[in-house]
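[Discussion] Sanity-checking designs against the backbone

I'm trying to build intuition for which residues belong where. Below is a structure token string of 179 positions. I'd appreciate it if someone posts a full sequence so I can compare it with mine line by line.
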């Protein structure tokens, strides 16, 4: 090992040697890393939303009901000092209030000026979306979700729906929270 005259030269030398001996990642792994999403559950349905619009996963705190809004609007919550509207997705799709559970989470969805919380049964972390796992099973999800699903995949013998948050926040029935 040659002696470096300064700490910066030593670090530069170490970095250069690491890069010379590093193994490149296989192309398949690089593609898989770009196709991850946030896995969540609505009732018994396992869904994955691509990470683009979902900025954060929050533990539900106090949600204050707002009069004059649709029943599926759970209310507003204080998130990072701002009032954030929170939508109960189970109530939005099936007209049933989401049963309170310690596993409930809020997906913070941001698109342009729109920031909204989506209350879901559970968040199960980051989930891969690999194209070779496509299922052939016909319509494994309820019709209520059909406008928001871009496909479904089999992963470890379970069926997961690819959920489009973009389609949801752009749908005419969703944007107007007031009655």
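Best answer:
Here's mine. Compare freely.
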């Amino acid at each position: 090992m040659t002696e470096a005259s300064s700490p910066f030269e030593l670090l530069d030398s170490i970095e250069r040697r690491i890069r010379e001996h590093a193994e490149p990642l296989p192309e398949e792994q690089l593609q898989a890393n770009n196709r991850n999403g946030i896995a969540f559950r609505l009732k018994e349905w396992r869904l994955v939303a691509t990470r683009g619009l979902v900025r954060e996963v929050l533990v539900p705190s106090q949600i204050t009901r707002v009069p004059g809004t649709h029943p599926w609007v759970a209310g507003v919550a204080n998130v990072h000092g701002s009032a954030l509207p929170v939508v109960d997705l189970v109530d939005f799709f099936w007209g049933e209030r989401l049963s309170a559970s310690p596993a409930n989470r809020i997906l913070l969805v941001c698109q342009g000026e729109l920031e909204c919380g989506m209350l879901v049964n559970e968040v199960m972390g980051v989930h891969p979306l690999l194209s070779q796992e496509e299922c052939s099973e016909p319509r494994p999800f309820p019709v209520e979700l059909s406008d928001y699903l871009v496909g479904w995949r089999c992963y470890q013998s379970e069926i997961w729906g690819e959920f489009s948050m973009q389609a949801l926040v752009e749908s005419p029935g969703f944007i107007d929270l007031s009655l």
